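Friendly challenge for the regulars: who can give me the structure tokens for this chain first? No prize, just bragging rights.
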Amino acid sequence: MAAAKTKVLSVSFSQWVAGVEPDNRRNEARQLDGLFRRFTGFEPQVWTGGIVGYGAYDYTYASGRSGTWMATGFAPRKARLSIYIMPGYADFTPILDRLGPHATGKSCLYITRLERVDPDVLGELITAGLRDLATHWPVRSRAELDKARPL
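First reply, four minutes later:
Bragging rights claimed.
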């Protein structure tokens, strides 16, 4: 089975975010980091592909494929911010209706400008996504998962 392409990098969030372009996306990434830390209680982990994750979970699918993935996170893309609400099981329409302008994908929320959405509602959505994920897979900090695995 092929190894996962997306992996945690050994770079701090502060080092990584300094390279985010343009300036407005860098500022939004810093704001999102504060929001995610506040609502998740997890420290950020920088993943390949310009993704910042908070918390993680180990999964094994019926197919036998297994791995570790971030519990929630974001990626500051040029066109819009991608917010990852994993794994996309629940219907969060009542929360999304109060959020502000956005688009959705299977497990992603797309926001063009962070200032146009309600940060408290976004925090509520992040929390709801983590609660839903925890009904399917145990969610822990990345450090906790790494300690639990045999070397």
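The chain has one domain: 21-145. The domain at 21-145 is CATH 3.90.1150 (Aspartate Aminotransferase, domain 1). Your move, everyone else.
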